[in-house]
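Open question from group meeting: does this chain pack into something compact, or does most of it stay loose? Before anyone orders reagents, we agreed to write out a predicted structure and look at it together. Recording both the input and the output here so the notebook holds the full record.
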Amino acid sequence: MQIWQSEPISSADFDRGSHYQIEPETLDKVREGLRLCAPDLRCRLLLELSEAQIPATQSLLLDWLQQEPLPELQATILSYLGKTDLAGIEPARIQPYLASKHLQTQENAIALYGQIPQADFSALLPYLQAELDGSVLPLKIRRAAWRCFAAKGALAAKTLTNAALLAFKDDPSIEVQALALQTAAYIEPRSRQISNWLDQAAKSDKALLRLAAAKDPRPESAERLQMLLEDREVTVRAAACAANQGSHQELLLQSLKDPNAAVRLAAVIALRRQSSLNNETAILALLDSCRDPYSELIRDESETSLFLCAQNQAGPAKELLKEALIHEDSLIRLHATRILVKLNESSAMPIIAANLAKESNSENLVAAVQALTQMSQPGSHAALLQSYVEHPSPLLRAAVAVAVGTLRTDNAEAILEKLCLDPDSDEVRAAAFQGMGLFPKGSFAASILKCLKNTSKTSSKERRNAAWACGKLMPENSAQEKKLVELAQRLLLQCTVPVIPGMEPMFEEIDVIANAMYSLVQLQKRFPQYNEFGELSEKVLAVYGVPWEEAANIGGASQSMPPPVDASTNSLVNQARQWLQGEQASTEAIPPSSLGFIYQKYNE
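Structure tokens returned:
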């Protein structure tokens, strides 16, 4: 099922998968510009190129890196390459710059090389030492190399031995000591000497060494971990939680009570890596974190940890979550409800429904109504939902609108007609129009048409949902069929002429146009006997199917500028035509557009 069949298309749907592509001619212009530009303009041009995140960027930057004569710009290009897809960089193309005489170039090359998935870390080994070829190696270069090893962990540690790492235990640089220890923590098997080094670091008066010890992913000593989790530095305590790969569950549970929110958050997330988390002690501790008084993020992450645990591990989690539905704390009730909905735990439905009458918190009421929407039988809870139609919370009224539409309750038609005129909230009105699409009675056509026409007093989201609902309506008599044709005619105008009074020429937002377009396509497919639907649909597809590069040349007597044809609308048209023909709608990225660059010739 395509997205436009199950829910309204939103602007967020157009943010996924879009990309640009440089045509060969544009690439030639860019290269010519690089040859002609002054250094500062070359830098600006390369920056613009790198920030566009274009697939061709990497190839051009790599090519130019080998031609660039200034080491300062070589350093800049190396940093820009770090923004591209590192898997596409051949290590051999970066390796020559590891030995650059320009320190910033050398540092950037090491940092980039260490991130490349195919990199051979043995090439970085010479830069770990205090000296290279009889000369003292700058500390910043050593730090850059050690950071690569510490960041890659087990992958980089394969090129080092316990003995090699222990040689840096007393390095003059505390930072090098710390990075070497952090790398050593990934060596397998771990030697007794490395364990002793970790123990000593945990007791050190140097915070950097304690932090390195805290980043041990598999602490074998509960005593050491306990010490680090009680460290006076917040960063050390948080790191000890974050690095833990699934051991010492009881200590992580203690950290859920840490006075600092960063540590509590790290503990909540780390607990997901525990293979035996689904036990009463852990579940109750995480539920308690769902009412963290200072951090919504901790509450939400606790909910996620509980959900993953209940979903993936056997144990008492689901039963404890059901018991939490009647907990005295409203936040625990809220998160328990949300988790059970995510789990689609229908056995919790009677408890949730029974609690609705007792619930006073509006956020909890919304969650409960959403639970009813997802897990109840069609036609159920009509009277219960009716009782919240005039609730003070607009979020709850909006949830009711979607619920009655989804469940298609007997009173849904009257409720949706009422809520689409809600005097206080456009969110409620938008939800009501979405509900009309979910319960597509032909009688809704008049209200939907009024919304689409009243562009000065309705929000874009209302019109978006109303446009989406159009394609769903099922007329029950000739009068409703006539109104549906009138509605389709309005959809054509919504797509092709300016509709925002006082701001002309101003077209609808792209999501409104998209939903209007697809509703016309659906009407054409659902009612082939009505030629008018097909004609109206084809007019819209013809307008937006024009290659976007040529769209600026489109003229029209009824408007001072062409409709907003672009790569996104081209893609919408392509998918609509495929759907009409019964083909699999393409899921490829939005059709590419091209970039041009302005440059000027530089003369000495």
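Observations to bring back to the group:
The longest strand covers residues 131-132.
Residues 595-604 have pLDDT under 50 and may be disordered.
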